Amino acid sequence: MGTVLKGGYVVELEPASVERVDLRIEGERIVARGEDLTPGPDDEVVALSGKLVFPGLVNAHHRLASVLARGLVRPTPETYQAQLEQLRWPFENALDLDAVQVAATAGGLESIQCGTTTLFDLHSSPKAVTGSLLRVARGLHEVGVRGVLAYAVTDRMGAVGREEGLEETVSFARKARGRFRGQVGAGPVFTLGDDALQGLGEALNTTNTGLHFPLAEDPLDERLSTERHGNPPVTRLLNGNLLSPRAMAAHAGHLEWADLAQVLATGTWLVHTPRSNQGLEVGYAPALKFGARASLGSDGASPDLFAEAQAAYLRSREAGQPIDVLRYLANGHRLASQVFEAAIGPMREGALADLLVLDYLSPTPLTAETLAWHVVHGLGSRHVEAVMVDGVWRVWARRPLSVNPTVVAEQSREAAAAVWARLTP
Asked: Which residues form a coiled coil (predicted)?
């Protein structure tokens, strides 16, 4: 028994194409594509009547727990370092395991309602480390989204905290399966001593995965890394053999060209997070220089990849360095395909069936040549009508099928109140 999507316009991002064809899905994969496919006797037929069939979006760098910080009223720090020390780190310290799971469900629900079917989460809860990634996975499992999870190892809580973080990120990477995979995670490089870098290298060898970490989000990363540890971040990462085609560096907004070139030479993925960078007032990252392995992530901003793509393109235009927004989105699929060792993103036979149905009535011709402009100026999360992950409908008629949004929101508000109460004045 399969599912046949009939009468839709199937979209591919790179090379761009918009074609009116049918798709047949069986199990977790697309098994046929063609004009006017004939359904089998037991197939479910979904008449799309000209709606778009779009690849499920990939959020390459997110922080699910940040959903519980939305609206948190605190004094606005004047510097990036103060923002970390007065807001982000105290918030992470206030998380317990129950809050971690609730945040994953709430953040995962927002993600899938916005059309994101795969997200890469870099998690940190220094006072609730052991078992935290499993709780994140449970929260995402309730929603049905695909997740790649890492714990952000740091020396910020001392050697014991560092070792707990290493154990957590390695333990999850070893046992993750199905819709989940693990990576080795790290905090900002200036929070990592030499022992931490050595431990990360050993963890990468043990798990055969890549490193997921923030890099040069602010000039503070280079300054403190040099002051505390004798070398700038890129030099330390290269000396530790931590950069590779499996590694993912988020932000990369404050690297000298020589350092950026060295990062690019290792094949490391670079994840552009324009809305988060703008919100933190850390400046614009030169995304046009990020090379062929660059994608998009939302960091602590809302998990809306359509909004992220639009912000990325418009900010790049403002900087006089316009990027190819379709390539950035398509690279998310390439990254997810690499991690899951299966085709994710192509609307072709053999690919995993992660897709969206968009109810978008285009006011102008929608073709391969105009697709990028519709993504930048027209398409949005408001058009997401249905979402399929691994061949299973997770959202239908704009309603999540496995969770009650009202209940999720109530639980999230309760968890947020408890976390806020634990924050020191």
From this structure: none
